[in-house]
């Protein structure tokens, strides 16, 4: 935290890889060497020299000299360089323009880069031109860049130290930078603190010298209690993504500045308990079981994203009671499941799998026996939700007669016919496909009794959840020939990772297609999910909106404008709303907007208020009895 009054404090900011995301001379190289066939080699050499300089392995002068020589750059390349760099100002600097302009008298940009491009990039963000200290290029008559002004201290070793000494700033000095030369200012006793800035690069030799690591400018501002764009720095918020969630999701969280950890497989309960302690946002797919025990150890957890449709793997009730909002992707892989189901129905009815296996053994068995068209066959859908209805439409397009059974009254699409009971459907269908959700009550929905009710030689598909079918009963039905073929994508016990063996009594049946829970695993679906779910989680984190949540009162909120948003999650007992508003009345706070939604067990109140209020309000709101979670957004 600042030790002197703000007016007597100076902020020294590095340019390359701190103010901007990149090293300017690397970008200049990409422009000046664009036509050279050996461009990539030279660029790699330039990058290596930059890194060695930044890590303190070679001198500044040497690093500059070597790079300028390799660059072969010209004055005419500078406009393109400036344009590119303008688009590469670090995200947290972009977000915090107000800090840069409000404190322009106290901010210095000091760099061993070059004024010719630094000034046009930093001054539009509020930095004063005479507060930029950097080298200047030396040009020949033809405009080629042939070197730099060697009398400038910044072209020499310990140049930044010399410059700060010459500036003789009357107050505390805080240095923010990614390089060793930034740390040297502190080492020389000329700065009070050195913040290693890691938003763009992480240099271990620099990090180990830092007083504090700043993954973003927000972190620096938060640490010093200075006004900033984020109420709480996102770099302090940890996102844990399991089960190979699509990289597009990882990018979305990283772009927002979160600390993201990814793991390829699922974790078991104990592993997850260990991993989740400091996690605020959890992303999983169908395998990770988020149990009550896990949640009891997840004190920072604000929200869970199921990067799939099913949410039966999550204890939704406990999540709600603990104020954790859960979201899923209800439509992103629907079509993929439907296409696989259609493909399997055709493969099974034509007996293709055993035929193909025989061919691989050299057996040529050309015959029409046990091979049929799907046209005119009766398809029975158990569960007529998003997948069931979509399959209904596509199957009808293939000429199938569709029957369905759902516990909820559903509109029959096209010519599909609704069955009054499960038993009615079981008796009528030639092919039965499961599309119910995985709620616990659906355990063993299809067992011996149900198989006995089916037609002899029926085909059976389960692409929903493993536990909805009693596997020993299915094995018996396959053995007796009652079920002539099956397509199974889901199993009561599924391996946690691709390294684990799949163990099941279902292995070895000739006309049974076994797939490793890939109904929703297409490139398209995974990318759609990877975009959709982070969108929901970010809306909740950034704005408080819970629209589409599977366990929370749903609220779609307006964007925050010129106000602070207080989010209060509480047990749904009488009188809480009154107590919240008593606090606002007591402190004479003008409410700009207020939204409330409840479920049986929790209430979610959002109040937008003007920016000037005392800290006491927040403390009092947090202390209201039955408060589950409280958050402040601005
Ligand atoms: N294999 C895979 O990779 C995938 C599997 N799934 C599974 O498919 C399930 C269904 O997905 P959606 O159609 O999107 O869900 P949905 O929620 O839109 O539809 C489920 C339907 O099943 C009905 N239902 C529930 N229990 C029933 C019962 N006992 N009898 C009759 N109907 C019942 C519900 O009323 C609802 O209409 C998901 O919950 C998930 O478990 C989803 C995507 C991919
Ligand atoms: O969407 C679902 O419910 C699925 O079953 C797909 O699960 P996955 O993301 O492939 O683990």
From TrEMBL:
- Reaction(s) this enzyme catalyzes, per UniProt: (R)-2-hydroxyglutarate + NAD(+) = 2-oxoglutarate + NADH + H(+); (2R)-3-phosphoglycerate + NAD(+) = 3-phosphooxypyruvate + NADH + H(+)
Could you confirm whether the keyword Oxidoreductase appears in this record? yes
Q: Does the keyword Chloroplast apply?
A: no
Keyword entries, A-Z: NAD, Oxidoreductase
Its annotated pathway reads: Amino-acid biosynthesis; L-serine biosynthesis; L-serine from 3-phospho-D-glycerate: step 1/3
InterPro entries documented for this protein: ACT-like_dom_sf, ACT_dom, AHAS_small-like_ACT, D-iso_2-hydroxyacid_DH_PdxB, D-isomer_2_OHA_DH_cat_dom, D-isomer_DH_CS, D-isomer_DH_NAD-bd, HAD-like_sf
Cross-referenced NCBIfam families: HAD-SF-IB (TIGR01488), PRK11790.1 (NF008759)
Q: What is this protein called?
A: D-3-phosphoglycerate dehydrogenase
């Amino acid at each position: 935290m600042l030790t002197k009054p703000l007016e007597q404090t100076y902020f020294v900011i590095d340019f390359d890889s701190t103010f901007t995301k990149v090293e300017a001379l690397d970008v200049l190289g990409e422009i000046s060497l664009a036509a050279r066939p050996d461009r990539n080699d030279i660029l790699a050499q330039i990058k290596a020299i930059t890194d060695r300089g930044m890590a303190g392995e070679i001198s500044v002068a040497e690093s500059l000299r070597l790079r300028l020589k390799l660059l072969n750059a010209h004055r005419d390349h500078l406009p393109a360089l400036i344009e590119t760099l303008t688009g590469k100002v670090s995200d947290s600097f972009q977000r915090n323009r107000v800090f840069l302009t409000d404190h322009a008298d106290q901010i210095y940009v000091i760099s061993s880069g070059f004024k010719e491009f630094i000034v046009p990039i930093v001054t539009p963000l509020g930095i004063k031109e005479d507060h930029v200290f950097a080298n200047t290029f030396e040009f020949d008559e033809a405009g080629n860049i042939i070197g730099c002004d060697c009398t400038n201290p910044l072209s020499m070793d310990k140049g930044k130290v010399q410059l700060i000494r010459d500036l003789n700033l009357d107050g505390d000095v805080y240095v923010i930078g990614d390089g060793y030369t930034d740390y040297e200012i502190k080492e020389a006793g000329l700065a009070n603190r050195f913040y290693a800035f890691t938003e763009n690069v992480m240099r271990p030799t620099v990090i180990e010298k830092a007083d504090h690591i700043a993954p973003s400018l927000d972190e620096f501002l938060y640490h010093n209690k200075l006004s900033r764009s984020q109420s709480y720095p996102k770099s302090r918020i940890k996102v844990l993504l399991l089960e190979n969630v699509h990289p597009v999701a990882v990018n979305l969280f990283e772009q927002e500045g979160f600390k993201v950890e990814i793991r390829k497989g699922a974790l078991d309960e104990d592993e997850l308990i260990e991993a989740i302690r400091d996690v605020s946002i959890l992303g999983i797919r169908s395998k990770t079981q988020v149990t009550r025990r896990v949640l009891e150890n997840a004190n920072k957890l604000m929200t869970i994203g199921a990067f799939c449709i099913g949410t039966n793997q999550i204890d939704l009730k406990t999540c709600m009671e603990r104020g954790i909002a859960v979201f899923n992707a209800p439509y992103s892989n629907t079509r993929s499941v439907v296409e696989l189901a259609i493909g399997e129905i055709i493969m099974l009815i034509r007996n293709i799998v055993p035929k193909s296996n025989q061919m691989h053994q050299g057996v040529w068995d050309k015959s029409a026996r046990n091979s049929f068209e799907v046209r005119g066959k009766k398809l029975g859908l158990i569960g007529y939700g998003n997948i069931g209805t979509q399959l209904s439409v596509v199957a009808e397009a293939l000429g199938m007669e569709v029957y369905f059974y759902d516990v909820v009254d559903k509109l029959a699409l096209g010519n599909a016919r609704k069955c009054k009971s499960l038993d009615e459907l079981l008796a009528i269908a030639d092919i039965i496909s499961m599309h119910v959700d995985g709620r616990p009550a659906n355990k063993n929905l299809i067992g011996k009794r149900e198989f006995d009710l089916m037609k002899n030689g029926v085909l059976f598909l389960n692409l929903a959840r493993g536990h909805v079918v009693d596997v020993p009963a299915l094995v018996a039905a396959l053995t007796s020939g009652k079920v002539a073929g099956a397509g199974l994508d889901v199993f009561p016990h599924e391996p946690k990772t691709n390294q684990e063996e799949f163990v099941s009594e279902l292995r070895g049946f000739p006309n049974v297609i076994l797939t490793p829970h890939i109904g929703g695993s297409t490139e398209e679906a995974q990318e759609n999910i990877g975009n959709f779910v982070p969108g929901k989680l970010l809306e909740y984190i950034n704005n408080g909106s819970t629209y589409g949540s599977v366990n929370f009162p749903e609220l779609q909120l307006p964007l925050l404008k010129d106000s602070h948003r207080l989010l209060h999650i509480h047990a749904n007992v009488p009188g809480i709303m009154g107590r919240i508003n008593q606090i606002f009345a007591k402190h004479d706070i003008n409410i700009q907007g207020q939204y409330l939604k409840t479920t049986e067990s929790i209430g979610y109140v959002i109040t937008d208020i003007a920016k000037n209020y005392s800290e006491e309000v927040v403390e009092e709101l947090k202390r209201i009895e039955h408060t589950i979670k409280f958050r402040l957004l601005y």
